[in-house]
Specification:
Hsp33 domain, six-stranded antiparallel β-sheet, six-stranded mixed β-sheet, 16 strands
């Protein structure tokens, strides 16, 4: 399988450090094809898409993970969603000119929200923090540090062809003394920790990665370049793809939420009701006959539904 649109997990043996490498190709360009993003917006959105793919791979779930950043700056909204099946979608909203600058100048006074929808009866977990730092990777690393979860670092890059990222995470127990057993993920089995300084050393090595290496090298070559003196296990790649959950049925549900009176008012003013998906730009049109059919049972209630 190609390294494009794929995620690779790896373990650095005898260290208690695990990681992931992701490189997005066609899935990233599908996002770019749906809006004329300025260069500064494109860079942050691509990094966010790579980051969300990496974060989704650190947890076991059947639902979706959503990363959202919102503020009062020129780039005022960014949303990325990753599904358990490897599907990704993303969008950004901006106004005026977006500078190629630190996050504070791009987003202004902003916050970052990470939501995990487990897919089990609406069960969700959400973390909200101020968006801090000069880079998105630094902001997400800070989120993990402040939330007292596993120490986690990210390195991210994006251009008009690829979005890519590297994640390192210290396993539970890895901060202890030498010769401590710590469980990795199900694929990796058990990792024996024999090197108490491994986390700091691994991060120092990863800090040498350049954007063109993240974007241009395959996972095996990249990891060999960064960790050539370490014993490393690289697992089979996991495919990723662009995916949007919008549909005619979901759009109909949104119209039901409006209620019959408001829906008919829109029809009288515009002649039909059109709903365009913010993520994929698909357009769903409902004429008077369609709307009448939606409310034929006399009910204006519908389950809660959104486009993201």
């Amino acid at each position: 399988m190609s390294d494009r649109d794929a995620l690779h997990r790896f373990i650095i043996d005898d260290t208690g450090v695990r990681g992931e490498v992701v490189r997005l190709d066609a899935s990233w360009r599908e996002v770019l094809n749906r809006a004329d993003y300025p260069a500064a917006v494109r860079a942050v959105l691509g990094e966010a898409m790579a980051a969300t793919a990496l974060l989704a791979a650190t947890i076991k779930f059947d639902g979706r993970i959503i990363l959202q950043a919102s503020g009062d700056g020129p780039l005022h909204l960014l949303v990325v969603q990753a599904n358990a099946d490897g599907g990704l979608r993303a969008l950004a909203r901006w106004k005026d000119e977006v500078p190629n600058a630190p996050l504070a100048e791009i987003f202004g006074d902003a916050r970052m929200t990470i939501t995990v929808d487990t897919g089990r009866d609406g069960e969700q977990y959400q973390g909200v923090v101020e968006l801090r730092g000069d880079s998105l990777g630094g902001a997400i690393g800070g989120y993990f540090a402040r939330s007292e979860q596993l120490p986690t670092r990210l390195w991210l890059a994006a251009d008009d062809q690829f979005a890519a990222g590297l994640l390192l995470q210290r396993l539970p127990g890895a901060a202890c003394d030498a010769d401590v057993d710590a469980d990795a993920d199900a694929d990796a089995g058990t990792v024996r920790i024999t090197d108490a300084d491994a986390w700091d050393r691994s991060c120092v090595l990863a800090d040498t990665v350049a954007d063109d290496e993240l974007l241009g090298l395959g996972a095996e070559e990249l990891l060999r370049r960064l960790f050539h003196q370490e014993r490393l296990r690289l697992f089979e790649p996991e495919p990723l793809h662009f995916s949007c959950a919008c549909s005619h049925e979901r759009s109909a549900g949104l119209i039901r939420q409006l209620g019959e009176i408001e829906a008919r008012d829109i029809l009288a003013e515009q002649g039909d009701i059109s709903i365009t998906c913010e993520f994929c730009s698909a357009r769903y049109r409902f004429d008077a006959v369609d709307v009448a059919r939606l409310f034929a049972d006399g009910s204006s209630d519908a389950p809660h539904d959104t486009l993201h």
